[in-house]
Specification:
The chain is an alpha+beta fold. The protein has a domain at 120-238. The protein contains five helices and ten strands, in the order ααβαββαβββαββββ. A five-stranded antiparallel sheet has the order 2-3-1-5-4. The chain has a five-stranded antiparallel sheet with strand order 7-8-6-10-9, with helices on one face. The longest helix has 12 residues, at 50-61. The protein is globular.
Length: 304
Amino acid sequence: MDKVEGLLKNLNLSELESKSLKIGWSDGGNLGAVEPQAVAKLLSDKPAHREALETALGRLWCPMKGLVCKNMGENTFLFTFHQASGRKKAVDEGPWMFNKSLLVVEEFHPRKSLGEYEFNSIPIWIRIFSLPLGMMNRDTCEEIGDEVGKYMEADVKENGTAMGRYLRVKVRINITKPLRRGIKLDVGEGRMDMWCRFEYEFLPDFCYRCGMLDHIDRECTIKLKKGEIQQFGSWMKAHIPRYGGDQQRGIGEADRSLSDGRVSGNSRNYGFGARNGRSGSDRDSWRKGDQTTTKVINNSEKES
């Protein structure tokens, strides 16, 4: 596909080919589409099965009415939601995983061609530690959120102050850049800058060498020098407690230990989940210590 697009850029168009045809837009520019839609790309070398995506994500995003998944090629999919709330869940919650690979979801724009979608950002909750107590508020969430990516939401009380010992902010981060391990704050009054580390909730496996989300260590082109240590690690993954005994692992998850010492289990919890159709970090009650278990959809359920 890239080769074809490269050839087209060098074409000299004739007079007729250079003439633009204006197409009439109907229904507010959606060309007749009446149901909400989203476009998604699975960051995997293996082709995904449309039926499996439609079944698993339909249960999660639109549990009452389901959705339709259309394969657009190259692991890109167009979702049509039969519930309006499904689009918001898909785009603004997550991060979403399928068969251990990251699924990046974008808003559907009727005037965009498929090649114009960038699939370069995901929403994720970040925990910020070691902040001065006077900065544990919504304003700090907004400033740090916009510094790290695009601020989306703050988990604070009605008076705007933090819920607990860390600040929790939802940010849309750029996955084409390394993960931020923290942030340095200038607190003024002649004091030294403070380093505030980050932890990410439901963070997928990523590369501990370069901090990128699109691959893991053994696939990384960066080679560590003798004596050089990795600058990223599992300490960037927030601990998510599991309640009850019926929670299943993510889609396609198996009992295994990675060659680099990472162990599957609590450190890797997939965004597909939650009994009420919301991903774990986006549930209203998850911080209140409720005993509601989070069920992660298993690909094998499609067979039943």
